[in-house]
Design goal:
Largest sheet: 3 strands, antiparallel
Radius of gyration: 14 Å
Shape: globular
Helix content: 10-25%
Number of domains: 1
Order of helices and strands: EEHEEHE
Structural class: alpha+beta
Number of helices: 2
Strand content: 25-35%
Number of strands: 5
Length: 76
């Protein structure tokens, strides 16, 4: 899973394990609701990312999931 965060001056793409999706979405949601001032996340490579509330509020956030079998639901 990849998290793409884009604002006026910067684009960040962070890759996570698929199992972390729920936790990351919950943390970002709590930050945007005002419960946290920043989100602390570890990516797939073990790097830590701190994203502030101000940065997240002024950004577009996109979750990109990798499809295991893109032809699974195709029919002829």
């Amino acid at each position: 899973m990849q998290l793409k965060i884009t604002n006026e001056s910067k684009e960040i793409i962070i890759e996570f394990e698929d199992s972390e999706k729920r936790v990351i979405e919950e943390q970002i949601g709590l930050c945007l609701d005002g419960s946290y001032n920043y989100v602390n996340m570890k990516d797939k490579a073990g790097n830590t990312h701190f994203l502030s509330l101000g940065f997240l509020k002024n950004s577009y956030i996109t979750v990109i999931e990798k499809i295991k079998n893109p032809y699974e639901n195709d029919t002829l």
